[in-house]
Amino acid sequence: MRILLWCLMVLMPMVASAATHQEKAETVDEEQLFRRLDSYIAQRDKFAEKKELRLKKLKKEVSQTSDLRQHLLLYNQIYREYYTYRYDSAMTYARRGWELAEQLHDAYYIDLNKINRAAVLSTGGFYSQAEDLMLSMSPAEISPKLVQYYYYTLTWVYNYWEAFCENSEFKDGLQAKKKAFLGKTIANVGNKKTALYYYLCGEMQYLKHHTDKNVLGCYKKALAASPLNSRVHASAAYCVARYYRDAERMDLYEKFLVEAAISDQVCPLKENLALQELSTYLYNKDKKYAKRVTKYIYCSMEDAQFYNNRLRMVEISRILPLITETNHETEVRQNRIITASLVFVSILSLGFLAMAFFAFKMNKRLAKSRREVKSQNRLLEELNAKLLSTNKRRETYMRLFMDISAVYIKKLDDYRKLVSRKIKAKQTADLLTAINSYKLAEEEAVNFYIRFDKAFIELYPNFVDEFNLLLLPDKQILLPAPSSLTKELRIYALMRLGITDGQELATLLFYSTQTIYNYKSAIRKRAKNIETFEADVNKLCHVIR
Fold first, then answer.
1. Does residue 527 lie within any of the structural domains?
2. Domain-embedded: residue 253
3. How far is it, in rounded angstroms, from Cα 373 to Cα 375?
4. What CATH code is carried by the domain that includes residue 466?
């Protein structure tokens, strides 16, 4: 017994020391962690280009073969590439595969494309539609090769649905369904040594007990068995981060959240969560991360808009105004520091005449900085007010905002690169010609009209019909195209959105104020009730359907 106790006394410090070393090995310097993530974010376009090249190759194979059954195989491969990359395109190829399979009476591909369609519906936020489609199928009647995929898809339908209903009474019921189908998925996995199997086992263990050691073991096996550019790796890294968050090991939570975000970039996955969650975590952790948070949240917003993920866009819209407000507060603090510095320098200048010239130069620079900061503050206040207002609108309006912002930021960056390239090449004459050209402005105006018309009609599909009811029967307006407004309708569309000032309308539509007045006067003459016409317009489409 004494010998046993002595051995334990000797071994326990050694075990504790080994555990300490292991934990230290897992920790990473935070700044190094962020630099690594930023390096991968900087390569977003390169990863996307590789994805597009793969898609281009697959589409070329489709066009070069007349074998319709080969088309089925290629359609499914294209769908797999699009599944977590672009919602609309994934849905398109799932539909094409389904239609072709129906034409060929191929039961396997009919069922496969039904499941594909349900999977992408769930990522797009159409949970009940995905559920209806899946439950219309019977696992006993489909090919044994599809049974695992069938249960896996149902698991993730309820997983996404549960996340959407996080704070509602439906969460527990959805989680129970997810757990049931997850068990069936695991039971139908053939190879028990794959990364996917380890990951699924980790998910099941997590549902039983969040911080059980078996949970971490399964997820780390999945990480080790999967490459960085795989969805399983990204998901497993995120789940390891989630485990450490529940265990209150926030350093390791941050480390594996970055690992998941990096994997998302490399795949690339536009349907992702890690970078968005990292932004929220850093925002709550310390206000010093404000610039980094802004960078990451806008990357997440671009991905959500690119994929057309409603759930992610709603989540981002909740935190974006808060981040903007924090940036505003940071600017205010900087302004106070600058002002204090001015006072300090001024006092020192009285005592040190030899530094008078230096103090004068510094004062001028600081005064200029203060004016710039005040100007930025005013701009931030305006942007913050617009963001807060936008957040209250329907998801469609949020999608419009993000689309227009992303497009014009890209074009502005392209224009900056063009200017830089021309200057470096000493092609100033070409640059001057490009700047003096009105073609760009005209093209942008046309593009703006097209996007505005489409978005407004989607948001207010009954606007034109209700507007025509205010006009005399023989004076009603016909649309030039299904998704295109006339110049007159465009003016009153903006007025319906709350823009009533003539100068503002003229600026937005690239008209003169007189032109705006003429169009409005011409329309009022066609109204049934001229006196109340504009008030009646503001009442149109009171409820957006």
1. yes
2. no
3. 5
4. 1.10.10
Q: What's the pLDDT score for residue 5? A: 42
- Given a contact cutoff of 8 angstroms between Cβ atoms, the answer to whether 451 and 404 are in contact is yes
The tens digit of pLDDT for each residue in 73-120 reads 999 999 999 998 899 999 999 999 999 999 999 999 999 999 999 999
Assess if residue 410 is contained within a domain: no
Q: What is the sign, positive or negative, of the torsion defined by CA atoms of 204, 209, 210, 211?
A: negative
C-beta of residue 523 within 8 angstroms of C-beta of residue 492: yes
Asked whether residue 63 is assigned to any structural domain, the reply reads yes
Q: What is the DSSP letter of 289?
A: G
Per the model's pLDDT, the better-predicted residue between 372 and 218 turns out to be 218
Phi-psi region of 471 (alpha: psi -120 to 50; beta: other; left: phi over 0): beta
Question: 3-state class of 320 per DSSP?
Answer: helix
- Dig out the tokens for 171 from the structure: 């969460």
Query: Is it the case that residue 543 has pLDDT exceeding 60?
Result: no
CATH of the domain at 70: 1.25.40.10
Contacts of 83-86 with CB under 8 Å at 24 or more apart are 83/116, 83/119, 83/120, 83/123, 83/271, 84/123, 84/231, 84/267, 84/269, 84/270, 84/271, 84/272, 84/307, 85/51, 85/268, 85/269, 85/270, 85/271, 85/307, 86/270, 86/306, 86/307, 86/308
Burial class, 12, CB count within 10 angstroms (exposed 0-12 / middle 13-18 / buried 19+): exposed
Tokens 């994929």 sit at which residue? 307
pLDDT in tens, 141-173: 999 999 999 999 999 999 989 988 888 899 999
Is the distance from CB of 261 to CB of 37 less than 8 angstroms? Answer: yes
As a whole number, mean pLDDT of residues 501-517 equals 84
Could you give the C-alpha distances from 225 to 36, 80, 305, in angstroms and in order? Answer: 22, 21, 31
Distance between CA 517 and CA 498 in Å, rounded?
17
Please say which residue of 140, 157, 188 terminates a domain: 188
* Rounded (10°) angle between helices 439-459 and 395-424: 170
pTM exceeding the 0.70 threshold for the entire prediction: no
Quick check: bond before 321 cis, omega within 30?
no
Number of domains forming the structure of the chain: 2
Q: What is the pLDDT of residues 49-68, one digit of tens each?
A: 999 999 999 999 999 999 99
In the listed set 188, 208, 238, which residue is the last one of a domain according to the structure?
188
Print the domain residue range for 109.
48-188
User: Per-residue pLDDT tens for 311-341?
Assistant: 666 666 666 665 666 555 555 555 555 555 5
Q: How far apart are CA 153 and CA 130, in angstroms?
A: 9
Distances from the Cα of 460 to the Cα of 282, 392, 456, angstroms: 38, 16, 6
